[in-house]
Amino acid sequence: MATWNLTVNNTPQTVEAEPDMPLLWVLRDLLNLTGTKFGCGIGMCAACTILLNGAAIRSCITPISAVGTQEITTIEGLSENGQHPVQQAWLEESVSQCGYCQPAKILTAVALLEKNPHPSDLEMDEAFSDNLCRCGTYLRIRRAIQRAAQGG
Amino acid sequence: MTSSFTRRDFLKVTFAAGGSLLLASCVPALPTEILTPTQTATATSTPLPEVPFQPNLFIRIDPDGMVTLTIHRSEMGQGVRTALAMLLAEELEADWKTIRVQQMDASQGVNQITSGSGSILINYHPLRQAGATARGILVNAAAQFWSIPPEECKAENGEVVRADSGERIGYGKLVGIASDLKLKSTAALKDPREFRFIGTSVPRIDEPEIVTGKAIYGLDVRVPNMSFAVVARSPVVGGKLLTYDASQAEAVTGVRGVVEVPSGVAVVAENTWAAIQGRSALKITWEEGSNARLSSEFIHDSLAAKIKDAIAAEPAAPLKTIEAVYETPYLAHAALEPVNCVADVRSDVCELWMPTQNPQAVQEFVQGRLKLPTIVHVTLLGGGFGRKLEVDYGLEAAEVSKAFGGPVQVVWTREDDIQHDFYRQVTYHWMRAGWESDGMLKLWRHYLAAQGINGIAYQAGVDVLNEDIKIPYTMEGQSTGSFVINFPVHTGPWRGVVSATNAFANESFIDEVATTLRQDPYEFRVSRLGQSDALRATLQLAAEKAGWGTPMAEGHGRGIACHKTYGQTSVAMVAEVSVADGAVRVEKVTCAINCGQVVHPDMVAQQMEGGIVFGLTTLLNEITYKDGRVQQSNFHDYPLLQMSEMPDVEVHLVQGDSSPVGLGEMGVPPIVPAVTNAIFNATGKRIRHTPIRAGDL
């Protein structure tokens, strides 16, 4: 067991964990940040997506030992009360069905728009590769990203 | 709390000590008759069901004006919390901003099962009736307060308005007045032409919590002193635990204990990761038994042999005939949230928190097993699709908590979820059609050999296999039959159940008949549907909106299919595909649906989009067996449809003339035959099985 100093949603956090523990379980089980979801454990569904220094990564295959001083942002830290333009776009387009994977989809969209403010459908498809939604909300995700890209 | 009002044993009105108005409404256990608009217009023409009083739909109006509806169905993405709240708000004339929902725990004597796409069908009238009754009470209270006849008062957006002066009193204040008065309510339902909520796309009531990560699914439940567990289960169905060595598992940092339970060996730990690591370190020997010989080849051959026997008695007909065999495999539900359950077994009670479609069955089975009173709290479901109707994961979690001695969350990894599912049943359809020399159809056969449903809470045989097996087309000489073989594989309801596989066989084979006769597949269908059949109008609308018959690009094809799932909801779809280099891409799906009175148009579209994705995914994956083991384990070998594979989808509504019917499953059955028919149109190749395999195109 080792001690790790993390920055999660702009807040310093200290946790005790084995070096190979995926960040997913650190967030969910040690820090009680359950907005980050478990879906597959092998990086194939992206339900566990978080932002590491602003880039979308899969926390289920990212060991805590790989985080270092990078800043972690989870859905809980994206905005104060859901006011982020991407969250608002999600509501405007009524994207969610079961909603389980949507925090991950929102963070993926935030990271995409940061790099590419006006992504094409093809660029969205690439950013959302192996980013699964069993309810089938893909068309609405695209529409929400387009809406956010146009400033809501 | 005193009971002061009973309306024909149907609605019970109570005033709580704090001054809140409570309504408990009884919902009949069985679906109510689908009523025509003339019957829905007023309550006076709608007889109230004569059933025992069973309080289950709880509605509370507080002195601060807030209205709370206790939701007795499970929310798994179909929007049921919002839709039920809309029904109440409509008749109550509530201010939508005052509506809150809370989830009901398991409660026996009331139908809480979220299945069969039935939540709105069943609750449409009772919940509106409850809202209307509450409105009547509040109007009467206002009338007495003002000493004027109730006819001179009108309920409006959470207030009662006095016609002569325009003076208003809010519902919260009226609740206090009503509790001091002897009241009655006439409870007339609104004319659908005056609906304010029903038929509009109000925002989902729980979506703000979803997009902020605050929504609590089963896996997000945390109770004090909770441990996390994963269970090692027999890789072969029915396998027995022979021996296990837990020493290395117990040595894993964070592991708190290893306990034996009926389903296997549970590793209980401080966190999920330690539990998973601990399980990997277990050494287990299983007595696998004869099921270890099970293979997909054996399953296929057994179904084929059953059909061969059945058709041996089929007489030769003096007709031109064609025959074909359609096959579908076992399928996993693969909801993004794997099944899971938090259990806390104490000396006097068992308490469960879980994402379940079937809390009552969980309660019954766990009480029966543990001989303890059992409370089941229902969380949000990260997808259900029928998997969460089963009780296995609740029972198992209760066993783990009992054996370990404390509250435990049993987490199923993706591998656990895919390999220990209650799968969609495997099916084998033998089809024959025959016609005379003038092309007049005289013969239609559909013999189905399949596994039934053999779960814990759910078992069904020939009845479920016959679900929607008849074709809707006017045709002489139609005969169908079903034969069950129970393989040692757990099966359960899967979105669309057998209706989906029967639709694949029927709507593909009718296409084979039409194309063999060189007739247009759309015209062939329409000409055989009655003028009043709702399917006919949906088929016509889908064809029109899709531009049926207009030219297409090279390598493209169009296919059409329609289906009335559970005899309720008419859905027609036109799929446009392109085929290149042996790969198919579904470009566009045009869908038309008649689901009766539309409660929430955007949710209709969502459910059609979702059903289409669910159906398209069956073209990608399957569950197979070798040496008694499921060969797939995670999304690398059980792929789901991706965003890049998503077609454009258009959903068009046909105005229905009945009260609402189901939606959740109804998008699934027509999409697969629409796509495979389109592939035939593009390539001349007929796909008669799912998934589509390399070399099929």
Keywords:
heterodimer; A: alpha+beta; Ubiquitin-like (UB roll); five-stranded mixed sheet; 5 strands; B: 697 residues; Aldehyde Oxidoreductase, domain 4; 3 domains; seven-stranded mixed sheet; six-stranded mixed sheet; 30 strands; disordered N terminus
CATH fold call of the largest domain in chain A: Ubiquitin-like (UB roll)
Find the count of extended strands of chain B (DSSP E, 2+ residues): 30
- Give the overall average pLDDT of chain A: 97
Structural class of chain B: alpha+beta
Per DSSP, what share of the residues of chain A sits in E-state strands of 2 or more residues? 15-25%
Low-confidence stretches of chain B: 1-10, 28-55
Give the second-level CATH assignment, the architecture of the largest domain in chain B.
2-Layer Sandwich
Adjacency order of strands in the biggest sheet of chain A: 2-1-5-3-4
Oligomer: heterodimer
Give me the number of helical elements of chain B.
17
Biggest sheet: strand arrangement of chain B: 12-13-10-19-16-17-18
What spatial form of chain B do the alpha-carbon principal axes imply? flat
CATH classification class of the largest domain in chain B:
Alpha Beta
Query: Biggest interface pair, residues each?
Result: A-B, 60 and 63 residues
Structurally, how many domains make up the residues of chain B?
3
Q: Helix coverage percent of residues of chain B?
A: 25-40%
Task: Walk me through this protein's architecture.
The complex is a heterodimer of chains A (152) and B (697). Chain A is α+β, with helices and mostly antiparallel strands and 152 residues long. Chain A has two domains: 2-74, Roll (Ubiquitin-like (UB roll)); 85-149, [2Fe-2S]-binding domain (DNA polymerase, domain 1). In chain A, 35% of the residues lie in helices and 16% in strands. Chain A has helices at 23-30, 75-78, 85-92, 102-115, 121-127, 138-149; strands at residues 2-8, 11-17, 49-52, 55-58, 71-73. In chain A, strands 2-1-5-3-4 form a five-stranded mixed sheet, with helices on both faces. In chain A, strand 3 (49-52) and strand 4 (55-58) form a beta hairpin. Chain A is globular. Chain B is α+β, with helices and mostly antiparallel strands and 697 residues long. Chain B folds into three domains: 2-211, Aldehyde Oxidoreductase, domain 4 (2-Layer Sandwich), CATH 3.30.365.10; 218-289 and 339-411, Aldehyde Oxidoreductase, domain 4 (2-Layer Sandwich), CATH 3.30.365.10; 427-683, Aldehyde oxidase/xanthine dehydrogenase, molybdopterin binding domain (Aldehyde Oxidoreductase, domain 4, 2-Layer Sandwich). Chain B is 28% helix and 25% strand. In chain B, the strands form eight sheets. In chain B, strands 12-13-10-19-16-17-18 form a seven-stranded mixed sheet. In chain B, strands 1-2-3-4-5-6 form a six-stranded mixed sheet. A four-stranded mixed sheet of chain B has the order 15-20-21-24, sandwiched between helices. In chain B, helix 2 (80-92) links the parallel strand 5 (67-71) and strand 6. The longest helix of chain B has 28 residues, at 119-146. At the A-B interface, helix 1, helix 2, helix 3, helix 4 and helix 5 of A face helix 5, helix 7 and helix 16 of B.
